[in-house]
Amino acid sequence: MAKSRILVVEDEAIVAMGIKQKLEELDYEVVDIVFTGEDAVQTAVQEEPDLILMDIVLKGSMDGIEAASKIRNQLDIPVIYLTAYSDEEVLERARITEPYGYIIKPFKKSELNANLEMALYKHAEDQKKSENVKKQILADFYDFLMNMPTSADQSDVEIRDTLLKLFASRLEADMRPRFEKELGDTVEEKGINDIEGIYNAYLDWVAQLFTEFGIQTKIDAKGKVHYFKFLNCPWLEDAKKKPVFCLNCQAMIQQSFDWTGMEGKVEKRGTIADGRDNCIFKFNVPFMEKEK
């Protein structure tokens, strides 16, 4: 059985080496030790470890909580926080990123092992549930396509517009309550009171939504324009056979942006099913800083 691969994020070199030694004694593989939040994000994307041990307090501009949030928006990797603090405000920020555990420093090898085993087991179970959800979504989607009301004399453009309207109607009932609750909770918990902060929280929400479907995402910001990219597609072969398949994701993004009530628009710029490297959606929001 292959060893579980662990990324250690700890800015105290001596402490980091001690953690590495404990992990190797427990028969885990340490893929790397990094000291900053920025390096944690970059290494997680490059190495895709099975789990990340993340110190909350790190030197530099990005702490462990922010690094974990960025990783969570791109990858499905469980994070266990390491902390010497039990400050309620800090823990509340950490809870929003949905970690798989906390370990208070200093800790024993047995405590580390118990947390790792539990986190890896829970993550495996979560992946099974996510896979079942994806299968159900796929089955439901095919059923919907087979029964969609379209006319034989409609053009391709008219059919696409009809589908988008139908998807939007379904999402209004199925997803909007979740959207309003989760985004509202985030805004309240983080004390966000400006339009740019709410917009960024919305982008994080959309990224996390697609992560649940097994889709890795990336956001490239260029002033008032943001490019929201899908780095993979779990249903690529199905989408190639039925191009309208991609309309489901398009409807989810456009409809959820409409729910925010923000000024701006979302445009689809291309899909993996069309032969592009990424599915790309362009957000043009005038309230963000203008492009230079």
Key attributes of the depicted protein:
single chain, 292 residues, alpha/beta, five-stranded parallel β-sheet, four-stranded antiparallel β-sheet, 17% strand, globular
Account of the protein in words:
This protein is α/β, with parallel strands linked by helices. It has 10 helices and 9 strands. The chain has a 5-stranded parallel sheet, sandwiched between helices. Strands 6-7-9-8 form a 4-stranded antiparallel sheet, covered by helices on one side. A hairpin with a 2-residue loop joins β6 and β7. The longest helix has 38 residues, at 109-146. It is globular, with a radius of gyration of 21 Å. The N and C termini lie far apart (53 Å). The mean pLDDT is 83.
Which helices and strands appear, and what pairs or packs with what?
Elements: E1 5-9, H1 13-25, E2 29-34, H2 37-47, E3 51-55, H3 64-74, E4 79-83, H4 88-96, E5 101-104, H5 109-146, H6 156-174, H7 176-190, H8 195-211, E6 217-222, E7 225-230, H9 236-241, H10 247-260, E8 265-270, E9 279-284
Helix pairs in contact: 2-3, 6-10, 7-8
Q: What best-fitting shape do the alpha-carbon axes yield?
A: globular
Radius of gyration, taken over Cα atoms and rounded to an integer in Å:
21 Å
- Number of E strands: 9
- String of helices and strands: EHEHEHEHEHHHHEEHHEE
Strand order of the largest sheet: 2-1-3-4-5
Number of helical segments? 10
Short description:
With 292 residues, the protein is α/β, with parallel strands linked by helices. The chain has helices spanning 13-25, 37-47, 64-74, 88-96, 109-146, 156-174, 176-190, 195-211, 236-241, 247-260; strands spanning 5-9, 29-34, 51-55, 79-83, 101-104, 217-222, 225-230, 265-270, 279-284. The protein has a 5-stranded parallel beta sheet, with helices on both faces. Strands 6-7-9-8 form a 4-stranded antiparallel beta sheet, with helices on one face.
